[in-house]
Amino acid sequence: MKRNIALQYPHGTLDLPAAPRGLILLARAHHAAVDTVIAANLAARGYAILAMELLSAQEIQFADATQNVPRLAQRLIDVLDLIRNDGDMQELPLALFANGDLTPAAIRAAAQRDKQVRALACHGGLIDRAGVQALNLLVAPLQMLFDADDETGRQAYLRARTHLSGIHEMQVLNPGEDPAAHVAAWFSLRL
After folding, report:
1. In terms of C-beta distances under 8 Å and separation of at least 24 residues, what long-range contacts does 6-10 make, across chains too?
2. In a structure prediction context, what are the per-residue pLDDT tens digits for the chain, which is 191 residues long?
3. Are strands 48-53 and 11-15 parallel, antiparallel or unpaired?
């Protein structure tokens, strides 16, 4: 079953197989090819995929649109509230995947919905921008994936990890390596 999901913003689609293993919330600022690959990989493994775009076409035109962590985190919390009250999704074990600039917002949202989000995977991003309070409160197991040339992201993770009390790990991808298999393995282990 495929359904469109719309709040004021964000909006997206839900792909729901007959008997899903769990629900993956794929948070993105706007449509990106890498997200399509990861969604297809996870769907092939039997997960329901809720792909949500957090910014409007107008908002994405502003250079700093993806830097507003409080606004993006609130939009993710709105999506998590929608999931909690939706008959098709509310009983499914939930994991969250975010990419790049959405990583800090995903960590904040997962920290605020610690009983709902069971696992979190992020590809790139400056984790320390989530803030010390969110890092301290994060309960969901966190996987951070970094491209080989992302030294800035890795340094941010190294600074932030002292504030993480739950399960967390960092992996550096080989040049050109697809993160989808790592994300799928992490969610299979944690959901």
Report:
1. 7/75, 7/78, 7/79, 7/82, 9/54, 9/55, 9/56, 9/59, 9/75, 10/52, 10/53, 10/54, 10/55, 10/75, 10/78, 10/79
2. 887 776 666 788 899 999 999 999 999 887 666 678 888 999 999 999 999 989 888 888 887 878 899 999 999 999 999 999 998 999 999 999 999 999 999 999 999 999 999 999 999 999 999 999 999 999 999 999 999 999 999 999 999 999 999 999 999 999 989 898 999 999 999 98
3. antiparallel
Residues 5/82, Cβ–Cβ less than 8 Å: yes
Please report which residue ranges of the chain form alpha helices under DSSP H: 33-44, 69-84, 103-112, 132-137, 151-160, 180-190
The model carries a pTM of: 0.93
